[in-house]
Design brief:
The structure holds two protein chains of two kinds. Chain A has nine helices and no strands. By secondary structure, chain A is an all-alpha fold. In chain A, α3 crosses α7 and α8 packs antiparallel against α9. Chain B contains four helices and no strands. Chain B is rod-shaped and about 55 Å long. The chains are: A mainly alpha, B mainly alpha. At the A-B interface, α1, α2, α5, α6 and α8 of A face α1, α2, α3 and α4 of B.
Chain lengths: 191, 90
C-alpha cells in the first residue's frame, strides 16, 4: 500500500525527472515518454525504495537505466560521430553570421552521454557528487573527471565556432575543419 | 539549483554584472580560444576559467530550470492516479 506522502513525494519529483530526461534525450517528447516509463517502473519497485533516502536520486537511476537500454537500441539516431556532426554543419546556411549557430543546447547534445549527464546532474539538478556518482554507478572521482571533460569539451565546441567567421561570403568549411581537428584533439573515451 | 552548488561545481565562479547585449559571453570565449592556440591538453586540475564556467553554469541551469518550472503535464498525474487505483501487490 503506497502512502499518500510517498505518492505526493513522487509527484514532486516529476519536474526534476522531466528536466533531467530532456537534457539526456535532447527531445522533449521522448523525454516525457522516458519519464512515463520511469514512473511505471518505479511504482512496481517501490517496495525496494527505502523511505527517507533520496527519492529523486533513486528515480534518476531508474530513468537513466531505461535511457541507456533504449539508447543502445537506437544508436543510429545519435549523432556523436565526426562524420555525422560534420554532415550537420555542412548543411548549415552559410550566410548565418550568428554566434548562436552552434548554440549551447546543441553543443550539450554533442557531448558523449556520460559527460552530458554528469554536467547536468552536478551543474543543474542539485545532486552532490556522491549522489550523482550513485545515480551513475561510478566512483566520485570518475564523476569529477567526467564533469571536467564535459566542461572542457563544451568550451572547445563553443570557442571553435565563435572564433570562425561565419559572415556572408566567408568560407565556413574552414570552420568545420577546425571543429573536427578540435574533436580529434580532445577526443576522450568514456570511463 | 542554488548558488552554493554553482560555487561547489565551479569554485572560482563569482557573480558578475553582465553588460547588456553580451548574450553569450563571446569576448570570453574568443579570449579563451586564442589562449588555447598552444594546444595544451586540458587536465582535470586546470584552474577553472571564471567567465566560461559562469557562462556554462548559467546555461545549464537555464536549460534545466526551463523544464523544471513547467506545470506537471496531466498525463503524469493521471498515471499516478491510475497506478494508485490498481490492486495492491503487497
Amino acid at each position: 500500500m503506497v502512502s499518500q506522502k510517498l505518492r505526493g513525494d513522487l509527484i514532486g519529483t516529476i519536474p526534476n525527472l522531466r528536466a533531467f530526461a530532456v537534457s539526456l534525450c535532447g527531445n522533449p517528447d521522448r523525454a516525457d515518454d522516458l519519464v512515463q516509463e520511469t514512473l511505471v517502473k518505479a511504482w512496481s519497485n517501490l517496495s525496494s525504495f527505502a523511505e527517507g533516502t533520496n527519492l529523486a536520486a533513486w528515480l534518476f537511476t531508474i530513468l537513466r537505466n531505461i535511457y541507456y537500454s533504449e539508447y543502445r537500441k537506437r544508436r543510429r539516431e545519435v549523432a556523436d560521430s565526426d562524420g555525422a556532426i560534420a554532415a550537420r554543419l555542412a548543411t548549415a546556411p552559410a550566410q548565418s553570421g550568428h554566434m548562436d549557430f552552434l548554440d549551447f543546447r546543441a553543443a550539450l547534445q554533442k557531448l558523449p552521454a556520460d559527460q552530458r549527464e554528469a554536467l547536468i546532474l552536478i551543474g543543474a539538478s542539485g545532486l552532490s557528487y556522491e549522489e550523482a556518482a550513485g545515480v551513475c554507478n561510478c566512483a566520485v572521482g570518475t564523476m569529477k573527471s567526467r564533469v571536467n571533460r564535459a566542461r572542457n569539451r563544451l568550451v572547445e565546441l563553443l570557442a571553435i565556432v565563435s572564433s570562425t567567421d561565419y559572415a556572408a561570403g566567408a568560407d565556413w568549411r574552414s570552420g568545420i575543419d577546425s571543429l573536427i581537428m578540435g574533436q580529434r584533439f580532445s577526443r576522450t573515451g568514456s570511463d | 539549483m542554488d548558488e552554493a552548488n554553482v560555487k561547489k561545481t565551479f569554485p572560482a565562479a563569482v557573480d558578475e554584472f553582465e553588460p547588456p547585449g553580451r548574450k553569450h559571453g563571446v569576448a570570453e570565449i574568443i579570449k579563451l580560444d586564442s589562449a588555447r592556440q598552444d594546444m595544451k591538453a586540458p587536465t582535470p586540475n586546470d584552474a577553472p576559467d571564471v567567465p566560461i564556467d559562469e557562462h556554462i553554469g548559467r546555461h545549464l541551469k537555464a536549460i534545466y530550470d526551463d523544464v523544471l518550472q513547467q506545470p506537471i503535464p496531466a498525463r503524469f498525474l493521471e498515471l499516478i492516479n491510475q497506478l494508485g487505483d490498481e490492486p495492491s501487490r503487497d
